[in-house]
From TrEMBL:
This protein's UniProt keywords: Plasmid
DUF6788 domain mapped to chain residues: 44-104
Stated name of the protein: DUF6788 domain-containing protein
Superkingdom of the source species: Archaea
Start and end residues of each stretch annotated as Disordered: 42-69
Ranges of Acidic residues composition bias in the record: 51-66
Organism (species): Halopiger xanaduensis (strain DSM 18323 / JCM 14033 / SH-6)
Amino acid sequence: MSYEPLTPPTDLFTEIVNSLNESSPDRLRDIASYAEALAEHKEREARLEEESNEVDVEERSDDLPDDVPAKATITIKEINDNRYYYWQWREGKKIRSKYKGPVNSDD
């Protein structure tokens, strides 16, 4: 790591740069972790919004539960090294999910 002063990105607000410069290393790591998680969350929301705008559903899937809207998509979540299918859709600003079943290793 260089001992030269760091140059922040030009599009960062001065208040943010000053606040970061005054923060401890532990606080900076917490901020970095939060910023990364927030970026992933916003990217996922944008992707879901884009998918919901692109999907043109003409009929309900036979395995779609009654309480899941036709615009729902299937996503895979990994929990404790196991993979599961979930129906996922947007309701206003919230993203809703409903369990569908395990991902078969044969797929």
